[in-house]
Amino acid sequence: QQQVKQSPQSLIVQKGGIPIINCAYENTAFDYFPWYQQFPGKGPALLIAIRPDVSEKKEGRFTISFNKSAKQFSLHIMDSQPGDSATYFCAASRQGAAGKLIFGTGTRLQVFP
Amino acid sequence: DTAVSQTPKYLVTQMGNDKSIKCEQNLGHDTMYWYKQDSKKFLKIMFSYNNKELIINETVPNRFSPKSPDKAHLNLHINSLELGDSAVYFCASSQEGSHWGYTFGSGTRLTVV
């Protein structure tokens, strides 16, 4: 129930493509779903986050789609750029968990020119 | 100014040694965390402190002991290091245990030989 399953493990797209990363969860008590971006040698950085009362959130070229009934959420990167090449992690947490984030297993994205 | 800073960035040591990793945040956050990232990039929480009080202690060997002298600092001491302890250790902070907006440090790569 504490797991967050993420796929694919790796993704290769060309510049301008729209990579999609998917995550699924079991615990219906989760109420916060962030995405983190990690570049080599750096710590993860918060990219965008969503709560289950909305089905979509956009910030720049990054969009989260959220399907509460299916317990799934996904990250779409519009007009992807080589600078987006990084590892992306979905995560989930719930109120009363002292801020504990459960991370997905990560997706390594490579965007080629 | 670095928001969450960890030292050292790299640590190579022999099995059986004792080592410490230091973390400091200047964001005024109340909660700090230690996460471990293994060779497959999986991120797992180890500990969390809120205002110097331990609030999360995952199933971590007793050889790992966190210490928080004040709310801006969270150190990690590891006794009797083992090969399996090799990983990247990330410190993070957030406001009042809120799962909103973790800020991660850049990590400490620990290699046990």
Summarize the structure.
The complex is a heterodimer of chains A (113) and B (113). With 113 residues, chain A is mostly beta strands.
Count of runs of 4 or more consecutive helical residues of chain A: 0
Query: In which range does the helix fraction of chain B lie?
Result: under 10%
Fraction in beta strands of chain A: over 45%
Number of separate structural domains of chain B: 1
Largest interface: A-B, 24 and 27 residues
| Annotated CATH topology of chain A | Immunoglobulin-like
Largest sheet composition of chain B: 7 strands, mixed
Q: Tell me about the biggest sheet of chain A? A: 6 strands, mixed
Q: How many strands in all of chain B?
A: 11
Description:
The complex is a heterodimer of chains A (113) and B (113). Chain A is mainly β. Chain A has a single domain, classed as Immunoglobulin-like (Sandwich), CATH 2.60.40.10. Chain A has strands at 4-7, 10-14, 20-25, 33-38, 45-50, 56-59, 62-67, 72-77, 86-92, 102-103, 107-112. In chain A, β6 and β7 form a beta hairpin. Chain A is globular, with a radius of gyration of 14 Å. Chain A starts with a strand and ends with a strand. Chain B has 113 residues and is mostly beta strands. In chain B, strands 2, 4, 5, 6, 9, 10 and 11 form a seven-stranded mixed β-sheet that branches. Chain B has a four-stranded antiparallel β-sheet with strand order 1-3-8-7, with no helix packed on it. In chain B, a hairpin with a 5-residue loop joins β4 and β5. The interface between A and B is medium-sized, with 24 and 27 residues.
